[in-house]
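Rotation project, supervised by the postdoc (A.L.). Task for the rotation student: set up a whole-complex structure prediction and record inputs and outputs verbatim in this book. Inputs entered:
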Amino acid sequence: MINTIAYGLTIGGILYIISIGLSLTFGTMRIVNFAHGLIYTIGAYLLITTLPIFKNNFIIGALFTVLAVIPISYVIERFIIRKLYGVSIDYAIIATYAVVLIGIDLIKWIWGASPIPLSDPIGIDITLFSVTIPLYRLMIIVLSLIIFVTLTIFFKKTMIGKIVIAALEDKDAVRSLGINVDKYFSYVFIIGSCLAALGGVLYAPITSVHPYMGMMVLLISFAVVLVGGLGNIKGTFVSAFILGLVMAITGRFWGPAAETMVFIVMGIVLIFKPIEV
Amino acid sequence: MIAQLRKNILDLIIITAGFFAVLPIFGINRATDFIIFCIFVLGFNLLYGYMGRLSFGHMLYLGIGAYTITLFAEHVSKNPFLALIASILAGALIGVIIGPIVVRTTGACFALINLAFNQVGYFLALVALSRWTGGEDGMSAYFNKIALFDFGKKPVIFGFCLFSLLFTFFILKRLLSSPYGILIKSIKENEIRVKFLGYNTFKYKWIAFIISTTISSFAGALSILNYGYVTPSFIDPTRAVEVIFATLIGGAGSLYGALIGGVLYMAISNYLASYLSRWEMFLGFALLIIVFRFRKGVWGYVKDKFAIKAHGMVR
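Outputs recorded:
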């Protein structure tokens, strides 16, 4: 059981890292960004390609991947997302979905459609409370906590963070202070995309890498965002870990139902707490 | 009803003539496919084009119809008409059950909750209920011959589907020109004002949702009558983009737009996909072009051109 909880916390940590970017773009720009899942997939593929170059040094590979995603996400932001501000939300969904279609086809073109397995980069198991857990998973939990603390400080202490938080509350008021809100939104978008790529990098050794891996994760991240509240940084953190645990515990009893259970929880939450967008 | 029918007879003749015109180009098999897909697009368009609610999980309702008719034929009766009625009822039932949850939301939440439900349905069909649905392999459906209606024969199924399409079109046309239809369109424009006027918008949105799921389910059932075989691809949420694309390319919010979009999409996907290996990429770029440059779709474009000519003015 402790093993299951540890697994749930690992998934929760990765889910948090992925969904925080989604939650921020959703909360600030009111744009549902399907391309987030694509960035996640690209992250995993870039890691696989660059690992042999960096002599299988996982940390450098991960860092390179996270940085390499910046230009990609900038292009998506500049040419697609920025043109969709204030337009009907349906067009944003369709346009970002179109980006996903193009991206997945490109991935299939470059890397092929068959799944690629990746081994645990640390490969050491540690024993805690008489249960053996791979060290890698513990590292993910620690990393997600570090990211949570860093982001909280970022949004409380730095100027960019404060502007974004203010824009989450009232975009027009911030704009009337003479601040170019869109510029800060693109920062948020790029940070979110980097975190999505990091999520892909971290999740790649746990599952196999394939072109459609982003879609399912994206849906679960949306569930995390909707349960935690749009643009709510703390709420996203809590709901990511709760839904991670839900997935792990369901998966322990009946493997294939793990993801479906997340949507059932989301449905129940939305019945009692509908969201107006 | 009859007087109304006489009013709309021109529409029905145009549609019939249109499908008979494409019949020699595409062959009877594909033309039947096109008609069924058009019914599905009509059902989706009622929600998206007229009420302004984009559903990203409409495959669920198509799949419900497809699985209901198959299971009904397998376990209850091989009468195709009873099975059709059962699947229509099932489509309505799913709308009644999940409608109250879904229609309270708008925009992105509406799209995503539909998608989530679709994911649950896909899981049920593929894994959880695979003992009954045949899982990934799917299952075949056999229907008895009733009088003239032998659905194994292609002209019969073509005729029946065309009749179904005309019937759906007629019902929707009547519905949309009624006060109720105007109310739905006003909900798209500004729901709060409709509420101010004293209407219980929840009820009307729910009814529109039920009609849409029923039509989609009907389309799913018809495609099983046509193919005789159901697979999880009928309920696969990743295929939701097909109907969205069809609606957009034809022009959302018009019945003819839905028909044109359905036929165009099916023609593109049937023929282009065999020439173009990177078919998904083409679809992606086409969607981007539509969203940024061509929002009104083919029918909207044609209508604009025609209006300019008729009034002799250039905007």
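Student's summary: Strands of chain B lie at 139-140, 229-230.
Supervisor addendum: The longest helix of chain B spans residues 9-50.
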